[in-house]
Write a structure and sequence with these properties.
Length: 234
């Protein structure tokens, strides 16, 4: 996003939020246009009111904001949960008094770009994204926590994939694979690739336990205690 026009900037932000899974529309309050962003969930819906602001000079930080009253009015009218201002950068010291009073979250554009990139790899749920807008912590901290949660998820997915592959490769070799030996083989395989951490036995045990139970039943243990695949992957 590299537009000098606030209205075009808002249109682009609408597209971004729709890409993330939200529904968006424009709400007018006096002469100000704001974005109503809706997260439609089966069990709970939450709304954001978003405004976009660009500095007159690209190298400047946003030092003032003129539409505090409009934000609050639209929040009340639409029964929204969060107020967000998005910009490339902010002068937090000069804006902190107003943001605290009006419970407004300042959202740097680079953080949104990081979210888009991660969402493209594996979509975030709308419930996960809500954690970002909490006023209890900074947006930067909330996004970091969300990304750490994502890393843990990716690690588990990789481990599940590796376990299935190892069991499939050894299915015709009649090798005795328990949690200990399975963990050793996984670490030998992972050692061939950079960026993989050492897998612990309790992690392998946890996954084999989950996938040997309903509704999965992909893995089973023989009478001898060997871990095998119930179904062979195609």
């Amino acid at each position: 996003i590299n537009s000098e026009d606030n209205e075009i900037f808002k249109q682009l932000l609408q597209e971004v939020f729709e890409f993330l899974g939200f529904e968006t529309s424009i709400v007018l309050e006096e002469k100000t246009s704001l974005i109503l962003v809706k997260a439609l969930l089966d069990y709970k819906t939450y709304n954001l009111i978003v405004d976009a602001k660009l500095a007159d000079n690209k190298d400047e930080k946003i030092q003032k904001y003129e539409h505090w009253n409009e934000l609050s009015k639209v929040k009340e009218k639409t029964k929204s949960d969060y107020l967000i201002i998005i910009s490339p950068d902010f002068d937090y010291d000069k804006l902190s008094k107003k943001t605290n009073k009006n419970k407004v979250t300042l959202f740097e554009l680079r953080w949104l770009c990081n979210l888009i990139k991660e969402h493209g790899r594996l979509p975030f749920s709308l419930s996960d994204l809500e954690s970002i807008f909490s006023t209890d912590n900074s947006v930067k901290d909330n996004i970091f926590k969300l990304f750490e949660k994502r890393k843990t998820l990716f690690s588990k997915i990789r481990l599940i994939d590796t376990i299935i592959k190892v069991l499939n490769e050894n299915s015709g070799k009649k090798l005795y694979l328990n949690v200990e030996s399975l963990t050793k083989i996984i670490n030998q395989k992972n050692n061939q690739h950079s960026g993989f951490k050492i897998v612990q036995e309790f992690e392998v045990k946890e996954i084999t336990k989950i996938f040997s139970s309903e509704p999965f039943n992909i893995i089973q243990k023989t009478e001898m205690g060997s871990i095998i695949l119930s179904l062979k992957p195609k």
